[in-house]
């Protein structure tokens, strides 16, 4: 892109954008790289939010210690999943109360539910008591 811009558009990224529809910022970056000889490397992998398990390395083991006491196997033995009789909201509260996590550092209730599913636990809906 930079070579074409230099040859046909007098090194004008704006002209290349207008005529060819290229992104002006990309063309300018390429022109700077050709002029200086230094290749700019984008650290794309470092962007975004990291997984909560990476941020809190003991989170999975703490969740297992809480949920294993409340888990039961499938009564018909049709699946290998363990059914948790504890909700993701209760797991979050127990992590704060029992293991001393801070509310702000813990992932949301929905994310904790996904972590429970990934660990092999399935949440069953509680049946309402009949009156």
Automatic annotation (TrEMBL):
InterPro entries: Transposase_36 (IPR011518)
Protein known as: Transposase
Superkingdom as given in the UniProt entry: Bacteria
